[in-house]
Amino acid sequence: MQFKTHLAIGVFAALLFFPVVNNPVIFSIMVLVASAFPDIDTPFSRLGKYKFAKMTQVFTEHRGFIHSLTFCLVVSFALALFLPSLAFGFFLGYSLHLVADGFTKSGIAPFWPYSRTARGFVRTGSLIDKGLFVGFVIIDLGLAGTRLFGNM
């Protein structure tokens, strides 16, 4: 999936949980950051172009360890211990990124180090990917309107 599609899905998730979290702003920021973060492992992503990402790319391959629920759970657990207010937002955004990438043709190995891959039929940048982006943006706008203005 494309960067913008991951963000649109992240906005959707943040808006869903917005009314029930203690600090909705910090929660939403964490969901959005975590929605984009797994692609740090490729130099072709928005985050992967930065210097801090280059170190990661030396040690990992795209859609390897960093694109796994294993990594997501380890980091979420660490956050729950040391920065609990960030843990759920991170887990939600990160895991939704992985679910979305699991529907792509490239797929992911969700339970790294086991190499079994979850693959789908969506090609990154395809019409389906773009359609998902537009669909989530429309849903996001509707949900944002409901959160802001209620059920008028």
Describe the structure.
With 152 residues, the chain is an all-alpha fold. It has one domain (3-149). Helix content is 61%, strand content 0%. It has six helices and no strands. α1 packs parallel to α6 (127-149), α2 (24-36) runs parallel beside α5 and α4 (69-82) packs antiparallel against α5. It starts with a helix and ends with a helix.
Give a quick summary of the entry.
With 152 residues, the chain is mainly α. The protein is 61% helix and 0% strand. The mean pLDDT is 88.
- Count of helical segments? 6
In the residues, how many domains can be counted? 1
Q: What is the first-to-last residue Cα distance?
A: 35 Å
Poorly predicted runs are none
Round the mean pLDDT to the nearest integer and report it.
Answer: 88
Helix vs. strand class: mainly alpha
Write the layout of secondary structure elements.
Blueprint: H1 3-17, H2 24-36, H3 51-59, H4 69-82, H5 84-102, H6 127-149
Helix pairs in contact: 1-2, 1-5, 1-6, 2-5, 4-5
Core attributes:
152 residues, mainly alpha
